[in-house]
Every structure is written in structure tokens, then in C-alpha cells.
Amino acid sequence: MEFREFAAYADRIEDEPADLETVALVTELLSDGDGDLPVIARFVQGRIFPAWDSTTLDIGPNYLYEAIARAAGQNVTAADVESELAEVGEIGAVAASYEFGGQRGLAAFGSGDGDDSLTVGEVFAELDALAAISGDGSQGTKIDLLFGLLNRCEPIEARYLARLVLSEMRIGVGEGTVRDAIAEAFAVPVADVERALQVSNDYGLVARTAREGGTDGLADITLEIGRPVQAMLAQAGSVTDALEEWDEAAIEWKYDGARVQLHHDPDGIERDGGDTTTETTRVFSRNMEDVTAALPEVVEFAQERFDVPVILDGEVVAVNDDGDPLPFQQVLRRFRRKHDIEAAREDVTVRPSFFDCLHADGEDLLEDPLRRRHDRLANLLADGPQRSTLRISDDPEEIESIDAEALAAGHEGIMLKDPDSTYSPGRRGKNWLKRKPDVETLDLVVTGAEWGEGRRATFLGTFLLSARTGGGSYETLGKVATGITDETLADLTDLLEPHIRSEDGQTVEIEPAVVFEVGYEEIQSSPTYSSGYALRFPRFVGVREDLDVEDADSLERVEGLAERE
Ligand code: AMP
């Protein structure tokens, strides 16, 4: 397709405010899209390369201003282009305001006497070549190349070329529009297009396959080692949300690091065109950026552990010499690093923790339930810090204790997942919940406790919590049992034992003396406790050594919070 024709379409699309009409125009554009269809499907979204491909042009706007100035003629400077931009506010309009084509410099294309028009494919080939230029003097070469392209542009082409180069297409065509237009143009179901896009992240490939292979062709698009998939995302949610939504929840530690997707093939990852390379491992970020070079530990780990092709989803965490997690900021010192990687590695060690398996030994698992995907992961990786433990439970107390365990191990908390859910790339759905942090905590007085059982028989365990009333009495509103390690229990027992007023079997009454800070998810009206309220999922945060019982939260405050909810 002539680039001029593409630009004319872009122009019509830009002028069309209605979504439906936009889809109709994009459909027409794709239907007209000859051999350049894959490029057209990307260009119309303002994308030069497929989403999974981390190639970039790697040029600043100044290169483009310089190239525009050169193509515009002797009297125009890059500074002129910039001030024009400041005035009109948009690079496409600036590029379209000049008359190009008169400057036959060394780098200008075409003979000057024949047809100088550009095709979409040529524009892509030039930009691709531009992206590959690196090293000394690359700036000049890149400007030359852009100048050559612009010099062959009519104003309408220059408008969209300039926008493409700066990733500012902005004609109102999003991913959904192109998805719908592919379905429409090649008469295939939208759901099939959607699935193929999720698996491949390649609008060009999907458009061409829909045209040439229809539904069957789309169904044949599978995961490929080396081509990243969009990461499945999580929403904030509570234990209540999870247990209301599903019969039981899968619970995992939430690692505080950076998301990684590992692609590994012990026989070497195939490159475009089918050539096998000696490269076995690639690691991608949450945004599908290639971060392999920055994370040699992950590469080494994969090479040691996996003897079949895999695609795994996980988190890379910075750890200290004991293997304990370090704050998130530390991992950022490593994550996108391009230089001095070995030196950085001396400073900060990273460790992957994988929690999902998208592909194992020739089998795509996206459509399998989490339980099965995790089983596959467990087959590949023995128990250990490099793999999440997935526990299934419908018991809030058990969930609470996993949360406590995660925090005690230095992690961020827990993730709650629907054990039967499939992997939905790029979606922030309800199937993965990151546990919502407590909105506020309460400072409550301990007025009772229970002796533990078995191993914990010499410790006070479950603690009864009360709020102060105006009249100086205490009304109960919950018990906190979980979220406390053995060591803490021993300390709490030492702290509270002197205040025991009376004992009845395992139950003890304690005089108001100690204040606990307690997190919770919700305050409910409830007949269970004397205050008339109950805390949902109370969690021990700490002892408020700095507070006297008179400073603890009042029942009035609890009522106020309950009303607000
Ligand atoms: P957030 O970044 O706060 O939206 O939380 C979601 C992120 O937590 C994911 O994108 C992962 O990077 C990270 N994460 C840590 N541990 C897990 C886990 N076990 N399952 C899923 N995501 C996790």
C-alpha cells in the first residue's frame, strides 16, 4: 500500500469522532491492506514494532526536528521547527506545514526523475533500519535516514510519519478498535482474534493470519518461547471479597520485587524465520521489555534447572546474603540496568520467585485452571524460595496466618487467587486479588485471653479486645489470634501474665493494662460481643507500648468508623 493512501485513511479516521465509524474505516483500511497488512495493523495504532518486540527507534525529538529542518530547505533550522511546534502544539501539523522534496542531498532517496512515492512497507523497512543503527556517529546517520524519508513525503504523509516517529499517532485508534476491525474485515469471531492477540501480542501477525487462515489459522497461533505474553494483573481486594466470590481461595505470598516472565528453551530459542540460536533464555519485564542482560542470576538459574522449554511468570526480588528479601527499591538498582551489570550484581543479589507456569514442555497452559498450572510449576521446581507455595483454603483464620507468615518472612503480604481461573494476559480482573491493606488500625485494650494448646500450651494465645466507653468501662469487639509468631507469643505472655485477674479453664480475664494495635477489614454490627460490634479479620499489628489504656480507642470512635463504612 502506498504510504500516501495510508496517510489519507489516517486523516479520515482522525476526523471521525464516532467509535463505530472509526471501526468501519479501520476495517476498510485493513481490507485494502495487501502485503503490507501487518505493518498497517500496527501503524494505525501508532506502533512501529509489535508490542512484544522491545526494539525502539531510540531517537529524541531533536533528531526529528533536525531532519524536518533539513528537508524543509536552507532557510529553516531545527530551532524554527521547535518554535513552530510551540505555536501549533503538534508535530504532525508542523511537519505538514513545510514543502518537502526539494532537497536532494546525499542521503535523499529516489532519482528525482521517476516516481518517488513511498509504500508502507518501505517506510517500515527504513524505520527498522534506523532502529538498528547504533554506535559512534549513529545520531548523524539516523537524522540522514529520517531526512531521506521526509524528503519523499507529501505534507499529509509527513504529518503521519512525524507522529509515528515520536509515538504520537493519536488518531483515536486503540487496540480494541483494531481487534474489532480485524474480525470485521476478515469475517472471523472477535473472541478468536482476541485470543490470538493475547497469545501473540502481535497485531500484524494476527491480521495476516485472520486474512489467510481464518478461524483455524487463528487457533493455531500458540505461545512461542521468546515472544512475551502480557502479564495477568491483580486488583485490590479483601479476604471477604475472595471468599464471597469463590468457594475457596488460593493463597500465595506476595513478593515485593519486579515482575518477570521467563522464557527458556534448552535447545535454543528460535528467532524470527525459524533459525535456532544458541541463546536459551530470555527474561521480560511486566511491560514485555527484554531485561535478560540485567538479570544473569535468573538466566543461570533457568539454565541449571530446566531441561524442557518453559514460560514462567514470577517476581524477581533483591535478597541479602541470608536470602531474606530486601526492600523493593533495591531490585530497581538491578532491573533495567544496561551497564556494569557484574559490579551491580556484587552490590545487590536478585532471586526469582516463580508463581505461574504458562507453558511447559510443548504444552500451552493459559486456558488451564490455576491449580493445574501451579502443579506443573511444582513438577518443574522443587519447593524452595524460587517457587511460590499455593495453599487452598476457605478458612479466614488460616488465610490470616499465611499472611502473618508472609510478613514475618519479609514479604509484602498475600495474593488471593481463584484456584479455577485461567490465565488472562493483560487483564486486571477479579481472579487475582492483592490483599487490600487495612484502611486504619485500632488501638484496643486486651481484656482477656486464652491459653494455647499443644506446643503453645504455655503461651497466652487468642486475645480478647475491647474499646473504652465514656463511663470508664470496656466493651468487647473481637478476638485476635492469628498474625502472631511463637516468639511474639512468648513476649506477649510475659507482658500480660502479671495482669491476669482470674482463670476459668483455658480462658483468662485480664485487667486493662495493655494496648494492641489491630488491623481489620471491616467493622460489623454483631450480637457476639458486648459492644454490639465485631471486627472482621482482626490482625495483630503490634503492642502500643507508648499508650496507656486511657489513650486507647473509644467505643465512640469504633461506632464512627462503623457508620462510615
Ligand atoms: P501491584 O503491583 O501492587 O499491582 O500487585 C501486583 C503485582 O504483585 C504483580 O504484578 C506481581 O508483580 C506482584 N506479585 C508478587 N507476588 C505475586 C504472586 N504470588 N502472584 C502474583 N503477583 C505477584
Automatic annotation (TrEMBL):
<dbReference type="InterPro" id="IPR036599">
    <property type="entry name" value="DNA_ligase_N_sf"/>
</dbReference>
<feature type="binding site">
    <location>
        <position position="428"/>
    </location>
    <ligand>
        <name>ATP</name>
    </ligand>
</feature>
<feature type="binding site">
    <location>
        <position position="286"/>
    </location>
    <ligand>
        <name>ATP</name>
    </ligand>
</feature>
<dbReference type="InterPro" id="IPR054890">
    <property type="entry name" value="LigA_Halo"/>
</dbReference>
<keyword id="KW-0547">Nucleotide-binding</keyword>
<feature type="domain" description="ATP-dependent DNA ligase family profile">
    <location>
        <begin position="343"/>
        <end position="469"/>
    </location>
</feature>
<dbReference type="GO" id="GO:0071897">
    <property type="term" value="P:DNA biosynthetic process"/>
</dbReference>
<protein>
    <recommendedName>
        <fullName>DNA ligase</fullName>
        <ecNumber>6.5.1.1</ecNumber>
    </recommendedName>
</protein>
<keyword id="KW-0132">Cell division</keyword>
<feature type="binding site">
    <location>
        <position position="355"/>
    </location>
    <ligand>
        <name>ATP</name>
    </ligand>
</feature>
<keyword id="KW-0460">Magnesium</keyword>
<dbReference type="Pfam" id="PF04675">
    <property type="entry name" value="DNA_ligase_A_N"/>
</dbReference>
<feature type="binding site">
    <location>
        <position position="252"/>
    </location>
    <ligand>
        <name>ATP</name>
    </ligand>
</feature>
<keyword id="KW-0479">Metal-binding</keyword>
<comment type="function">
    <text>DNA ligase that seals nicks in double-stranded DNA during DNA replication, DNA recombination and DNA repair.</text>
</comment>
<dbReference type="InterPro" id="IPR012309">
    <property type="entry name" value="DNA_ligase_ATP-dep_C"/>
</dbReference>
<keyword id="KW-0227">DNA damage</keyword>
<keyword id="KW-0067">ATP-binding</keyword>
<dbReference type="InterPro" id="IPR012308">
    <property type="entry name" value="DNA_ligase_ATP-dep_N"/>
</dbReference>
<dbReference type="InterPro" id="IPR016059">
    <property type="entry name" value="DNA_ligase_ATP-dep_CS"/>
</dbReference>
<dbReference type="GO" id="GO:0005524">
    <property type="term" value="F:ATP binding"/>
</dbReference>
<dbReference type="InterPro" id="IPR000977">
    <property type="entry name" value="DNA_ligase_ATP-dep"/>
</dbReference>
<dbReference type="InterPro" id="IPR022865">
    <property type="entry name" value="DNA_ligae_ATP-dep_bac/arc"/>
</dbReference>
<dbReference type="GO" id="GO:0006281">
    <property type="term" value="P:DNA repair"/>
</dbReference>
<feature type="binding site">
    <location>
        <position position="434"/>
    </location>
    <ligand>
        <name>ATP</name>
    </ligand>
</feature>
<dbReference type="GO" id="GO:0003677">
    <property type="term" value="F:DNA binding"/>
</dbReference>
<feature type="active site" description="N6-AMP-lysine intermediate">
    <location>
        <position position="254"/>
    </location>
</feature>
<dbReference type="InterPro" id="IPR050191">
    <property type="entry name" value="ATP-dep_DNA_ligase"/>
</dbReference>
<keyword id="KW-0235">DNA replication</keyword>
<dbReference type="Pfam" id="PF01068">
    <property type="entry name" value="DNA_ligase_A_M"/>
</dbReference>
<dbReference type="InterPro" id="IPR012340">
    <property type="entry name" value="NA-bd_OB-fold"/>
</dbReference>
<dbReference type="GO" id="GO:0003910">
    <property type="term" value="F:DNA ligase (ATP) activity"/>
</dbReference>
<dbReference type="GO" id="GO:0051301">
    <property type="term" value="P:cell division"/>
</dbReference>
<feature type="binding site">
    <location>
        <position position="259"/>
    </location>
    <ligand>
        <name>ATP</name>
    </ligand>
</feature>
<dbReference type="InterPro" id="IPR012310">
    <property type="entry name" value="DNA_ligase_ATP-dep_cent"/>
</dbReference>
<feature type="binding site">
    <location>
        <position position="315"/>
    </location>
    <ligand>
        <name>ATP</name>
    </ligand>
</feature>
<dbReference type="Pfam" id="PF04679">
    <property type="entry name" value="DNA_ligase_A_C"/>
</dbReference>
<comment type="similarity">
    <text>Belongs to the ATP-dependent DNA ligase family.</text>
</comment>
<dbReference type="GO" id="GO:0006273">
    <property type="term" value="P:lagging strand elongation"/>
</dbReference>
<dbReference type="GO" id="GO:0046872">
    <property type="term" value="F:metal ion binding"/>
</dbReference>
<keyword id="KW-0233">DNA recombination</keyword>
<dbReference type="GO" id="GO:0006310">
    <property type="term" value="P:DNA recombination"/>
</dbReference>
